[in-house]
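Me: I'm a chemist; would you kindly supply a protein sequence with its structure tokens?

Assistant:
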Amino acid sequence: MADRAVRQTGKDRDGDITSLADRGSSWSPVSKAQAIYDIENRLHTYHVPWKTAGRTEIRVVPDPKGKYLRTDSDNTTRNNLRDLPDA
């Protein structure tokens, strides 16, 4: 199992996350569907590394419209994945 740091995200026109990325990493980019599969099947973990706040884990969240990715709750009001630079 690889522990993958996510430093960029792909987003659609509504701002929904479509992919996770870390420029220069051999695994990057990975689609949202593949990341969900990886997390649910415990193949890989994904996290956002923060310079001042350590790391924030990325989780799969079920929704009536389908599964999506989000970070664990932390002490900030920002949306961690949407705040990352575009992939």
In short: Residues 32-40 form the longest helix (9 residues). Residues 13 and 80 are 17 Å apart (CA to CA). The chain has one domain: 2-75. Helices lie at 32-40, 80-83.
